[in-house]
Write a structure and sequence with these properties.
Layout lengths: L1 E5 L4 H5 L12 H17 L5 E5 L2 H10 L9 E3 L15 H7 L18 H19 L4 E5 L1 H11 L16 E6 L4 E8 L13
Parallel strand pairs: 1-4, 2-3, 2-4
Antiparallel strand pairs: 1-5, 5-6
């Protein structure tokens, strides 16, 4: 089972600025969220044998804080777990982006502008890296920390558009659980935030 987690709130999340693959750190609130996630894992006895993370600091620091209580020897960082690359839009305020590229976050099946990575390309790399992790961990509990847009795009891919991009938001430090049958990934639950006292959303289908 894979626990796929979005990083804690970053400094730019708080400012409403698009990060993409820019390396922005956690805010104080984000560090608190990650610590609460770790406390929840400890309380529930959820002990991970493997920990993977995007190599961007906001994700890697979330992974470290959420597993600080575990005897984790190392966290495996991967560029494939990064957020979508938004090209020239990175660093801009979301309010400004929405004025001239209103569909920037869910522009399926159209030519990319501003040097952006396509959603389809992001989906393929997420499926690739998570399938590889599933094969490597062979059913053991694994924590994987990534990014909201990337997680949502993966959910969209695995549910054939029933959930994910364009249909809901992925909260900071939320848990999306994935299963692996030896050949393919499947969604078990989406956007769980028990450590933040939010309502769980479970995908059934």
């Amino acid at each position: 089972m894979i626990y796929l987690v979005r990083h804690g709130e970053s400094e730019w999340n708080a400012l409403g600025r698009l990060q993409g693959q820019m390396d922005i750190g956690l805010s104080e609130e984000g560090r608190k969220q990650a610590a609460l996630l770790g406390a929840y894992f400890k309380q529930e006895g959820i002990s991970f044998e493997y920990v993977f993370s995007s190599d961007l600091d906001r994700a890697f620091q979330t992974a470290k804080l959420a597993t600080a209580w575990l005897p984790v020897e190392s966290i495996t960082a991967s560029r494939l777990l990064r957020e979508r690359f938004y090209g020239e839009l990175q660093g801009q305020l979301l309010t400004e982006i929405l004025e001239h590229v209103p569909n920037y976050a869910d522009n399926f099946g159209v030519p990319m502008t501003h040097g952006m990575e396509s959603i389809e390309e992001m989906q393929e790399r997420m499926v690739e890296v998570l399938s590889s992790i599933s094969k490597e961990t062979n059913g053991a509990l694994a924590l994987v920390v990534a990014h909201g847009g990337a997680i949502n795009a993966l959910i969209h891919k695995l549910t054939n558009g029933q959930a994910g991009t364009g249909r809901g938001k992925i909260d900071n430090t939320s848990i999306t659980r994935l299963s692996w049958d030896g050949e393919k990934l499947a969604i078990v639950s989406v956007n769980e935030t028990p450590h933040l006292n939010h309502v769980k959303d479970t995908f059934e289908g």
